[in-house]
Each structure stands twice: as C-alpha cells, then as structure tokens.
Amino acid sequence: MLRACGERADHKLCQSFPMTATGPSRNDERPPAVFVMGPTASGKTALALALAQRLRCVLISVDSAQVYRGLDVGSAKPDAATRAQFPHSLVDIRDPEQPYSAAEFRRDALAAMGDATTAGRLPVLVGGTGLYFRALELGLSELPDADPATRATIEREAQRLGWRAMHGRLAIADPAAAGRIHPNDPQRIQRALEVIALTGRPLSAQQGGRAQRLPYRVLKIVVSPPDRALLHERIAQRFRDMLEAGLVDEVRKLRERPGLTADHASMRAVGYRQAWEYLDGDFDLDALVDRGIAATRQLAKRQVTWLRGEHDALWFDPDDPARREWLLALVGAFSRL
User: Fold this and answer.
1) Helix (H, G, I), strand (E, B) or coil at 335
2) Which sign does the torsion angle of CA 61, 63, 69, 71 carry?
C-alpha cells in the first residue's frame, strides 16, 4: 500500500484514500481524475489553482453559470489573467440565451478529460453544480430532448402563476420528483414538467436506468469551512464584493441583449435573478444586498446537503495550512497510482 501511494507518502496519508468503487485501487487501471467540490464561496477555485501550480493538471469548470459568456462578476468566474495562466475548460461556451443541459455537460467534460489524459495531465474538475457532477459520474437516463415549444408554454404558465405554484403542480403529477426538487429551483421544475408533458410519464419513473461507469478513478474533495457561520460571512462579503465589482452594471448590459429575458436559465442564477429584479424596480439597493446574500446562503445549504451524501469524499478545511499541504501531497500521490 505504501508503494502504491508514492515513495514519500506515509502510512497515515495512504490510508486516507477513499477506497470505494470510484476511489483509488492498485487493481484499477482507469486513469485518475479529481473532483474539487464544495458550496459557493468555500474556496474551491483557490485549491484548484494550488493544484495547477503543483501538478501537471487541466482545470475543468463544473459551474452552470460560468458556461455563459458575459456572466463574469456574478458567477465568480476566474479573471482573464488567471485563466491565461491556468486555462479552464467549459467556461464561456454558451451565449446566455442558449440552454445547456447536464447531458451536454457530461459529453463536453468527458471530451475535456480525455484530452487532458492524452496529454499526460490530470483532469481536475472544480465547481459547485451537483447536478453536473452526478451526471458525469453516474450517467443519465434516456430522457427526451428539450422541446422549445413545451418549454415556452411552461414558462408562460410560470410567469402567470409563479414557480412555487408550478412546483405544486409537479407535486401532483410526480410526488417523488417534487420531493427531490426544491421549490426555488425553476430550472429543474421546468425540466420535470417538460418530461411529463412530452412522455406522459413521471420523471421519477424514467430516471436511474442508465448508470454508466465513469472511465476514470476519482478522488473527491469537498472544500468547506467546518464553521457554518464562517461560510455565511464569506458569502455575505463575496456578494458585497460582487456589487462593488459591477454586478448590477453587468446585468444591465445583459438586459440589452434583445433575446434575453429573466426566464432564461442564465438569468435565474443566484445573484443575477436578484439584480434583474432590482433593475426592474422591485426593491432598493439595500434589499438587493439582503436578498442576494439570503439566496446565496440558501444555495450553499442545498449544496452542503447534497455533498453530505458523497460518502467517499475527503472534506477539506480551506483555512488549515497544514491540511492544505497534506492534501496537495495526497493528490500528487493519487495521480501517480
């Protein structure tokens, strides 16, 4: 076991590898990959950049907002200088009017991972979109493609009734799906209702039948401060920093795009939705701050709930320097297995 973990690794470090179906094994010949996951504002990007400085790796974004061009400030997208030094795949690959599905992400991520492996580099997937991570690791059921006409009908109903009412409609048609989807998650509510409309069957009855083994052995890392109050402070400070960096001006410019509306998935992202409503005159700047922080904290809570189900993941405190060096060494040993 010591040799498998690398010549300089000690016994404690080696024992820390998650020994699961996707975790490392001397008998697993699949190439390595690393998932850097965590709630928003936890420090995922900082860890990923530290890995990029230390190892031969390729960074691949797992963020449903960073895929969109023009969503820079509010998505906490790495700036141009950082991306010039450490390129990120799957950033700025769609216009904000365009949809981007979990199935498309899986296809694109596997292609980027394959390119990295062929080049002799370690794929490091970093982000907080749990749906994308799940799709990548487990595959997807064979569901119908998005239908623009059906989606438009659902969006018109949502404009008239509100997304909470649409969630109530989903609860009647598919209680199991509604139980898994938060009432404040319009994108997934819309998709579930769309599948029901197109197939006549509940979404929950069509999921889970297409598990596909990921062609990589994965080391999962969850970046999260152990103190929830500290995470809340980081969220509040980051949202205020985004406002100072020009989030409202960014959304104002996006509103000028002729085909973009508040109902597009890109504009339903946390921060963008609140800034759009502020520009509509729904509330004042102080309320924008409060609503943006509250919505981001709600998002972080959902992310942490999902991450607690990742039983084969290592949890990392981003404020522990000793643990940071230990973790960097661990990833280096894992990449050489």
Assistant:
1) helix
2) negative
Strands annotated E in the chain: 32-37, 57-61, 88-89, 122-126, 217-223, 313-316
Predicted local distance difference test score (pLDDT) of residue 34: 98
Both tokens assigned to 69: 């061009």
Rounded CA separation 6/13 (Å): 10
CA angle 166, 167, 172 (to 5 degrees): 95
| Cα first-last separation, the chain | 10
In total, the chain counts a number of residues equal to 337
Q: Amino acid identity of 170? A: L
Can you give the pLDDT at residue 187? 81
**pLDDT value of residue 182:** 83
Q: Where are the beta strands (DSSP E) in 29-163?
A: 32-37, 57-61, 88-89, 122-126
Cβ contacts of 280 within 8 Å, gap of 6 or more: 262
Could you give the number of structural domains in the chain?
2
The C-alpha atoms of residue 91 and residue 96 are separated, in whole angstroms, by 12
Whichever domain contains 189, its CATH number is 1.10.20.140
Largest CA distance in the chain: 64
Same domain, 157 and 123: no
Domain boundary among 206, 230, 249: 206
Q: The whole model's pTM is what?
A: 0.81
User: Would you state the pLDDT for residue 206?
Assistant: 80
- Kindly state whether residues 85 and 132 are assigned to the same domain: yes
Of 74, 68, 142, the closest CA to residue 98 belongs to: 68
Q: Provide the residue type at 169 as one letter.
A: R
- Residue 75 carries which DSSP code? T
Q: What is the mean pLDDT of each run of 10 residues along the chain (337 residues)?
A: 32 42 63 98 97 96 98 96 96 95 94 97 97 92 81 89 93 92 86 91 75 88 96 98 98 96 92 98 98 97 95 95 93 90
3-state class (DSSP) for residue 123: strand
Cα(137)–Cα(211) distance, integer angstroms: 9
